[in-house]
Predict the 3D structure of the following.
Amino acid sequence: MVMNKSFSTALISIALCAPAMGADMGYAPPPEYSLDAERPVQIGNGWYLRGDVGWSRERPPVIAPDAALSAALGKKDGWVAGLGAGYQFNSYFRADLTLDYRNTMRTNAKSDPFTCLTGVQGVSDAAGTALGITAITGSCYSGQKADFKRTSLLANAYLDLGTWSGITPYVGVGVGATYGRAEGLYNWYTSNNGEAYNPDIPYPNGFPQRWLTASGGAAPAPDDFTFGKQDKSVTTSKSQVNFTWALMAGISYAVSSNAKLDFGYRFVNMGSFAPNGPKKDGQVQEFRMGLRYSPD
């Protein structure tokens, strides 16, 4: 009996000491298993689609360098419509990709009248000595008929500046490219009958090439003049892609948890699509209204 009692006491002691021994020997506890169903990993819910329409104002390009005609063209109103998709990274930063189509800008204008060269004649003194040559002038105007088409693809980034009562002001920048096509005709025309200006001006033989007034005083040579057939016409039918950048500012208003109205201003520089025109053409000011929708 004494022996059995001692043996039982030893077994109980071993059982009580086993967990401590396991911990001392570095055994890891058994893994815990969860009976909950696995949850799908979410990539993010900041995606949105957008659509915009707007009113634009810009100066039409002139096919040939002509300050008088550029002033006569002035600025023209137009419209722009666009679609895009983007992602709202957080409360302050978002980015999107937009494709904008602009209405075909048509020009049909003429400049104010100016003096144009219609001939050259020799100048002699009273004794008949050849002194030089003088210009015979008339009245002309320049005109242009042209169509300009442009479509822009821009990558845009925006900084949202905080939200108050559902209204969020923002600023943004965009960079991308614009595909454009210019088709048209530029020319000079005579004021008396509106016909194309194309006189053939020969050099008067026997007279030195010294430009004078009709009375024999010194006169400047006409700009860019060469003797022969005069042709001021420029015809273009050209497509090209220009680097484009934009600056934006505006406000958005949350009409629901999924939709926001956007009202903004955008300045866009698309570059010139007139082969010989001023490089400042292609700068557009826009006032836009759009809708951003975030699907669930």
